Amino acid sequence: HIEELETHYPSQLSGGQKQRVALARALAPKPELLLLDEPFSALDRVLRIELAEKLKKLQKRIGIPLAFITHSLDEAFVLADRILILYRGEVQQFGAPEEIFYHPRNLHVAELAGLSNIFDDARVEEQVEKLVEGNNAGPKRTVLKSGEMRIAVNPLNLKEGDKVSWGIHPENITLLLPNSGSEDKDENVYSAYVHSITGKGPKKRIVLKLARHEKSLNAEVPAQFADALNLNTGDLCLVKMDMSKVVAF
After folding, report:
1. Phi and psi at residue 235, in whole multiples of 5°?
2. Bridging pattern class, strands 247-248 and 203-210
3. Helix axes 15-27 and 45-62, enclosed angle (nearest 10)
4. Tens digits of per-residue pLDDT, 118-137?
5. What region holds the ABC transporter domain (predicted)?
6. Residue 236 CA to chain centroid, in angstroms?
């Protein structure tokens, strides 16, 4: 909707209005393909996402294929049906946004996908077949050794001893109290100490010092849940990682 801008001079337009006018001019000739090279880079994050959402709706309505170049993960996830990631001129990965987010192929893709918890010291300890009972009961999985931690992940086509990196998104970490019934020896449950708690909005970011690894872990939890746990700096808690949410590459 730019009809209200037809009597305005360029100097009278806001940044967002200028972007809308530029997009309208690009669409006017009815192109078979629309190529946009970081069109929202000069705008603040809120406005970028707002325009990206509008562009997505417009693109679906008019049916023009769109190639959108961006360094913003937020823009890519709002707009894209498929994402192609380039690093130093080479294709790193091509796939759906969910694939990029949960199954990055390498460190470059993982970092671009916002994976802030990355551990690059792991090796494959064992391949566990699906068992119904016993100490290794559970689905087929690969077990990694990282520091003094054993981490179960979805099956990897690797040999024992192979080096591998792993990580988990902060929002996929579950925090438990020490007396919650889960023990540190349980698979993918680890003792940790609260290093810091920040955030006053709907989510809180908690930095945790793992008892069995030298690196810290960032967790993002709903503020209501964090308040219910009543955790404070220095408190002991348990960190639980769902196997399906752990990323390995």
Report:
1. -70, 150
2. unpaired
3. 20
4. 999 999 999 988 765 555 55
5. 8-40
6. 26
Asked if 208 contacts 195 with a C-beta cutoff of 8 angstroms, the reply is: yes
Q: What are the residues whose beta carbons fall under 8 Å from the beta carbon of 137, sequence distance 6 or more?
A: 131
- C-alpha span between 49 and 177 (Å, rounded): 37
Nearest to 158 by CA among 83, 236, 248: 248
> At which of 32, 65, 81 does a domain end?
81
Of 81, 115, 139, which residue constitutes the final position of a domain?
81
CATH number reported for the structural domain that contains residue 67 in this entry: 3.40.50.300
Residue 179 structure tokens: 């007396």
In single-letter form, the type of residue at position 191 comes to: S
Q: H/E/C letters for each residue in 126-192?
A: EEECCECCCCCCECCEEEEEECCEEEEECCCCCCCCCEEEEEECHHHEEEECCCCCCCCCCCCEEEE
Nearest-CA neighbor of 110 among 13, 208, 222, 246?
Answer: 246
Q: How far is CA 79 from CA 48, 49, 66, in A?
A: 11, 9, 9
- Structural domain boundaries, residue 235: 168-248
pLDDT digits (tens, 9 = 90+) for 169-213: 999 999 999 876 665 557 899 999 999 999 888 999 999 999 999
What CATH number has the domain bearing residue 237?
2.40.50.100
Domain count for the chain, please give it: 2
Residues 154 and 249 sit within 8 Å (Cβ to Cβ):
no
Q: Nearest Cα to 100, choosing from 89, 116, 111?
A: 111
- Give pLDDT, residue 195: 97
